[in-house]
Amino acid sequence: MTDKPRAEPKRRSIAQALVKHSDPSKIVAWYCQHCGRVYKDKEDAERCPKKECTYWECETCGLECSAFQWYCSSCLETNRWVRELEKLSRAEAIRAEDYPNDRGVVYEDKWYPCLDDFIDAHEHDDSGLPVRVWATEPSEFQLTMDDVLYEPFQRWLDDVQGILESDIRGVKELAAAVEAFNAKQILTIDWQSNKAVDLAKIKKELEEHER
Ligand SMILES: [Zn+2]
Ligand SMILES: [Zn+2]
Questions:
Q1: Which tens digit of pLDDT belongs to each residue from 27-63?
Q2: Which of 82, 158, 167, 196 could cysteine-pair with 93, CB 3.0–4.6 Å?
Q3: How many alpha carbons lie under 13 Å from residue 141 in its C-beta half-sphere?
Protein backbone atom coordinates (compact mmCIF):
# COMPACT_ATOMS: atom_id res chain seq x y z
CA MET A 1 0.00 0.00 0.00
CA THR A 2 2.78 2.39 0.93
CA ASP A 3 6.36 2.57 -0.22
CA LYS A 4 7.43 3.94 3.14
CA PRO A 5 10.55 2.08 4.35
CA ARG A 6 10.21 -0.14 7.38
CA ALA A 7 10.27 1.41 10.83
CA GLU A 8 13.59 1.50 12.71
CA PRO A 9 14.02 1.35 16.48
CA LYS A 10 15.43 4.51 18.09
CA ARG A 11 17.74 2.23 20.07
CA ARG A 12 18.92 -1.09 18.66
CA SER A 13 19.93 -4.07 20.74
CA ILE A 14 23.41 -5.56 20.52
CA ALA A 15 23.74 -8.75 18.50
CA GLN A 16 26.26 -11.38 19.54
CA ALA A 17 27.45 -14.10 17.21
CA LEU A 18 26.89 -17.77 17.93
CA VAL A 19 29.81 -19.71 16.46
CA LYS A 20 30.38 -23.35 15.64
CA HIS A 21 32.24 -25.08 18.48
CA SER A 22 34.46 -26.94 16.04
CA ASP A 23 35.07 -23.85 13.87
CA PRO A 24 34.86 -20.53 15.77
CA SER A 25 35.19 -18.56 12.51
CA LYS A 26 31.83 -19.94 11.37
CA ILE A 27 28.82 -17.95 12.61
CA VAL A 28 25.70 -20.10 12.85
CA ALA A 29 23.30 -17.55 14.34
CA TRP A 30 22.99 -14.35 16.32
CA TYR A 31 21.51 -13.64 19.70
CA CYS A 32 20.20 -10.52 21.37
CA GLN A 33 22.63 -9.57 24.12
CA HIS A 34 19.83 -8.32 26.37
CA CYS A 35 17.41 -11.22 26.40
CA GLY A 36 19.41 -14.01 24.79
CA ARG A 37 16.86 -14.79 22.12
CA VAL A 38 18.45 -16.37 19.05
CA TYR A 39 17.97 -15.03 15.51
CA LYS A 40 19.15 -16.23 12.13
CA ASP A 41 20.14 -12.71 11.04
CA LYS A 42 22.24 -10.15 12.87
CA GLU A 43 19.82 -7.42 11.84
CA ASP A 44 16.88 -9.24 13.42
CA ALA A 45 18.78 -9.71 16.68
CA GLU A 46 19.48 -5.96 16.75
CA ARG A 47 15.80 -5.31 16.14
CA CYS A 48 14.73 -7.74 18.90
CA PRO A 49 11.14 -6.63 19.65
CA LYS A 50 11.25 -7.32 23.40
CA LYS A 51 10.49 -4.18 25.35
CA GLU A 52 13.73 -4.12 27.34
CA CYS A 53 15.92 -4.77 24.27
CA THR A 54 15.01 -2.03 21.78
CA TYR A 55 13.21 1.29 21.88
CA TRP A 56 10.69 2.34 19.24
CA GLU A 57 9.36 5.84 18.95
CA CYS A 58 6.20 7.25 17.36
CA GLU A 59 7.15 9.40 14.36
CA THR A 60 4.41 11.92 15.09
CA CYS A 61 4.38 12.45 18.86
CA GLY A 62 7.72 10.94 19.88
CA LEU A 63 6.21 8.69 22.55
CA GLU A 64 7.24 5.07 22.85
CA CYS A 65 5.33 2.76 20.52
CA SER A 66 5.20 -0.98 19.83
CA ALA A 67 8.09 -2.69 18.06
CA PHE A 68 8.17 -2.40 14.24
CA GLN A 69 5.55 0.40 14.28
CA TRP A 70 5.87 3.92 12.87
CA TYR A 71 3.18 5.37 15.09
CA CYS A 72 1.68 4.85 18.51
CA SER A 73 -1.92 3.65 18.55
CA SER A 74 -3.32 7.09 19.33
CA CYS A 75 -1.46 8.77 16.41
CA LEU A 76 -2.44 5.86 14.17
CA GLU A 77 -6.07 6.57 15.00
CA THR A 78 -5.60 10.32 14.40
CA ASN A 79 -3.85 9.62 11.07
CA ARG A 80 -6.73 7.39 10.11
CA TRP A 81 -9.17 10.26 10.68
CA VAL A 82 -6.94 12.67 8.75
CA ARG A 83 -7.00 10.28 5.77
CA GLU A 84 -10.73 9.75 6.20
CA LEU A 85 -11.33 13.53 6.17
CA GLU A 86 -9.18 13.91 3.04
CA LYS A 87 -11.28 11.24 1.34
CA LEU A 88 -14.46 12.99 2.46
CA SER A 89 -13.24 16.35 1.14
CA ARG A 90 -12.56 14.82 -2.30
CA ALA A 91 -15.86 12.91 -2.57
CA GLU A 92 -18.58 14.01 -4.95
CA ALA A 93 -20.96 16.19 -2.94
CA ILE A 94 -24.72 16.58 -2.64
CA ARG A 95 -26.04 19.94 -1.40
CA ALA A 96 -27.58 19.64 2.06
CA GLU A 97 -30.88 21.13 0.80
CA ASP A 98 -31.10 18.36 -1.83
CA TYR A 99 -30.48 15.57 0.66
CA PRO A 100 -33.62 13.77 1.93
CA ASN A 101 -34.12 14.49 5.59
CA ASP A 102 -35.28 10.97 6.38
CA ARG A 103 -31.93 9.59 5.22
CA GLY A 104 -29.05 8.71 7.53
CA VAL A 105 -25.55 10.19 7.40
CA VAL A 106 -22.21 8.86 8.65
CA TYR A 107 -19.35 10.71 10.31
CA GLU A 108 -16.26 9.18 11.96
CA ASP A 109 -17.82 5.72 11.66
CA LYS A 110 -20.92 6.87 13.54
CA TRP A 111 -24.36 6.73 11.99
CA TYR A 112 -26.94 9.50 12.45
CA PRO A 113 -30.59 8.93 11.48
CA CYS A 114 -30.81 12.26 9.59
CA LEU A 115 -28.95 15.52 8.85
CA ASP A 116 -30.80 17.44 11.57
CA ASP A 117 -29.66 14.94 14.19
CA PHE A 118 -26.10 15.24 12.93
CA ILE A 119 -26.23 19.06 13.02
CA ASP A 120 -27.68 19.04 16.56
CA ALA A 121 -24.86 16.76 17.69
CA HIS A 122 -22.03 18.69 16.04
CA GLU A 123 -22.96 22.38 15.74
CA HIS A 124 -21.17 23.10 19.04
CA ASP A 125 -17.98 21.21 18.17
CA ASP A 126 -14.77 23.16 18.88
CA SER A 127 -14.21 23.80 15.20
CA GLY A 128 -17.90 24.33 14.49
CA LEU A 129 -20.04 22.14 12.29
CA PRO A 130 -18.01 19.88 9.97
CA VAL A 131 -18.36 21.05 6.35
CA ARG A 132 -18.98 17.55 5.04
CA VAL A 133 -20.50 14.30 6.17
CA TRP A 134 -20.88 10.97 4.37
CA ALA A 135 -24.17 10.44 2.54
CA THR A 136 -25.91 7.08 2.67
CA GLU A 137 -27.83 5.07 0.08
CA PRO A 138 -30.88 3.10 1.11
CA SER A 139 -30.75 -0.62 0.50
CA GLU A 140 -34.14 -2.32 0.45
CA PHE A 141 -34.69 -5.88 1.54
CA GLN A 142 -35.55 -7.61 -1.74
CA LEU A 143 -35.29 -11.16 -3.08
CA THR A 144 -34.14 -12.15 -6.54
CA MET A 145 -34.82 -15.25 -8.61
CA ASP A 146 -31.18 -16.22 -7.96
CA ASP A 147 -31.87 -16.21 -4.21
CA VAL A 148 -35.03 -18.28 -4.37
CA LEU A 149 -34.51 -20.49 -7.39
CA TYR A 150 -31.24 -20.55 -9.32
CA GLU A 151 -28.83 -20.73 -6.37
CA PRO A 152 -30.83 -23.45 -4.52
CA PHE A 153 -31.13 -25.28 -7.85
CA GLN A 154 -27.35 -25.26 -8.36
CA ARG A 155 -26.81 -26.50 -4.78
CA TRP A 156 -29.30 -29.31 -5.36
CA LEU A 157 -27.75 -30.14 -8.74
CA ASP A 158 -24.24 -30.40 -7.26
CA ASP A 159 -22.57 -30.74 -10.71
CA VAL A 160 -24.78 -33.60 -11.86
CA GLN A 161 -24.77 -33.55 -15.67
CA GLY A 162 -27.79 -33.72 -17.95
CA ILE A 163 -30.29 -31.85 -15.78
CA LEU A 164 -31.26 -28.53 -17.33
CA GLU A 165 -32.40 -25.30 -15.75
CA SER A 166 -34.77 -24.92 -18.69
CA ASP A 167 -36.70 -27.99 -17.48
CA ILE A 168 -37.73 -26.34 -14.20
CA ARG A 169 -41.49 -25.76 -14.20
CA GLY A 170 -43.43 -22.97 -12.54
CA VAL A 171 -40.71 -20.31 -13.02
CA LYS A 172 -43.18 -17.69 -14.21
CA GLU A 173 -45.44 -18.26 -11.18
CA LEU A 174 -42.48 -18.08 -8.79
CA ALA A 175 -41.22 -14.86 -10.43
CA ALA A 176 -44.67 -13.30 -9.99
CA ALA A 177 -44.69 -14.39 -6.31
CA VAL A 178 -41.21 -12.89 -5.76
CA GLU A 179 -42.31 -9.66 -7.38
CA ALA A 180 -45.42 -9.51 -5.16
CA PHE A 181 -43.29 -10.29 -2.09
CA ASN A 182 -40.77 -7.54 -2.96
CA ALA A 183 -43.52 -5.00 -3.51
CA LYS A 184 -44.72 -5.52 0.09
CA GLN A 185 -41.33 -4.96 1.71
CA ILE A 186 -40.73 -1.80 3.73
CA LEU A 187 -37.38 -2.64 5.36
CA THR A 188 -34.41 -0.52 4.30
CA ILE A 189 -30.91 -0.01 5.64
CA ASP A 190 -28.96 3.18 4.90
CA TRP A 191 -25.41 2.23 3.94
CA GLN A 192 -22.58 4.75 3.77
CA SER A 193 -22.09 5.75 0.13
CA ASN A 194 -19.04 7.27 -1.57
CA LYS A 195 -20.77 10.64 -1.80
CA ALA A 196 -20.63 13.50 0.68
CA VAL A 197 -23.30 15.93 1.89
CA ASP A 198 -22.04 19.50 1.75
CA LEU A 199 -22.90 21.45 4.91
CA ALA A 200 -20.89 24.59 4.14
CA LYS A 201 -23.99 26.75 3.65
CA ILE A 202 -25.63 25.53 6.87
CA LYS A 203 -22.36 26.01 8.74
CA LYS A 204 -22.14 29.61 7.51
CA GLU A 205 -25.76 30.33 8.47
CA LEU A 206 -25.23 28.88 11.94
CA GLU A 207 -22.11 30.96 12.47
CA GLU A 208 -23.78 34.15 11.26
CA HIS A 209 -26.72 33.42 13.53
CA GLU A 210 -24.41 33.09 16.52
CA ARG A 211 -22.75 36.44 15.94
ZN1 LIG B 1 16.17 -9.14 23.05
ZN1 LIG C 1 2.16 9.02 18.63
A1: 999 999 999 999 999 999 999 999 899 999 999 999 9
A2: 196
A3: 7
Residues near ion ligand 2 (CB < 5 Å) are 58, 60-61, 72, 75
Do 175 and 191 lie in a common domain?
no
| pLDDT of 8 | 93
Q: What is the pLDDT of residues 57-76, one digit of tens each?
A: 999 999 999 999 999 999 99
Structural domain boundaries enclosing 204 = 91-141+187-210
Distance (Å) from CA 76 to ligand 2 centroid = 7
Whole-angstrom distance, CA of residue 116 vs CA of residue 168 = 51
Cα–Cα distance between 8 and 68 in angstroms, integer? Answer: 7
- The SS3 of residue 25 is coil
Q: What is the Å distance from ligand 1's center to 12 Cα?
A: 10
Please tell me the distance between residue 45's alpha carbon and the centre of ligand 1 in angstroms: 7
Is the domain of 149 the same as that of 109? no
Which has the closest alpha carbon to 152: 161, 140, 165? Answer: 165
